Amino acid sequence: MLSRPPRLASLVSVLALFILTWTFFRLDRAPYSSFRFGKTLSSTPTTSSLHDNPLDFGIPLRFRDGEPKPMGTNYTWSIVMPKTKKEDLKWLQGEIPEAKLMVYEVDNPNAEHKVPKNKGREAMVYLTYMIDHYDDLPDTTVFMHAHRHAWHNNNLLMQDALGMLKRLNHDRVARMGYMNVRCHHDPGCPDWIHMDRPGGDFDFFRKPEEIHWRKSVWEEIHPGALIPSSLSGVCCAQFALSKERIRQVPIERLLHYRKWLLQTGMEDQYSGRVFEYIWHYIFTGHEVYCPAQNTCYCDGYGICFGGRQKYEQYENKQKERDRLFTEFDAIVKKSDKAKEEGKKESVLSDDETKELETLTRMIPEIDRWLEGKRKEASERGEDEANRKEERESYDSSRIWDYGPSAELLP
């Protein structure tokens, strides 16, 4: 007896059951399902959609280059700034009206913007801002410390945070995604943190944080990720991020980083310093990230010397000036100390007296030279064509324009 042909209703039922089951598992495994970690998460597509588990650090994120806005278009931006009650922000208030100032007063329980716990220094503030504003970010967010003048601010901008904020090129932030607002490499570049360094090789003066950067710490923060041979990036936890770059890092990872800060038993100052040397890794994927100093100044702030060699010429002259001033200062202090002690006769030798006269003449001459070069660099930076010449680029169409002439080639 021949069997009957399969019934259509049975086939439809099987197919419907298969589709429902497949849909359930896809939604259950989706990296941005709602209420994960107790927070409604964004449905904005990010690089986490490339794999099922955004906390699998063994699969690197693939960051996309950004596009600057059309010329003449304004950027929306915020300044995120941790502070304590005793720190004064009068130097910034009202100076940049186009930027939204987000102040986290970490030791004030009644502050407008709060952190879960005053722990981990500025890292807790930065991560909390990114988590809380993940879905309503401005075009650019600048993360800065509360003091206006500091040794780690840019020398060519008089170590003035206000000058850095006012001159910051948002086009560069949009293109790069992540930009450390400090241009000088030292400390942090080009070869800094080593997790396998023998105990006797630690430099506790220049790198006090390195002893805390052990293999176990890396594996807690980035479980499954390869251990880098070196972690190198410009200090000192002041940087700018584009909206797109923040969202290219899954919010689950930002929550994971903050959870580590909350739970670690590491001393507060060092848990924050741990993050100082991985912000560039988190937002670029590079263990070593040391942009050229002249490029940072030129494209980032419009101070263009005309190439690396000319920038280094300026820097070398500045170092010479600093060395001469150190000698000058030592001689003057020796003379002043003798006067304070009531000694009427000069305590300086003939050679020291002659050296003082020479230094008194040389230092102002070098200062005038340096001032002239800074002025030229600022004027050169007003031209977009000059800024483009010193900008990073993978375009090789004109690369041989910069090579030796044909007659010099073998």
Automatic annotation (TrEMBL):
Residues 373-395 have a biased composition (Basic and acidic residues). Residues 373-396 are annotated as: Disordered. Pfam families: DUF3431. InterPro entries: DUF3431. This is Uncharacterized protein. The lineage of its organism: Eukaryota, Fungi, Dikarya, Ascomycota, Pezizomycotina.
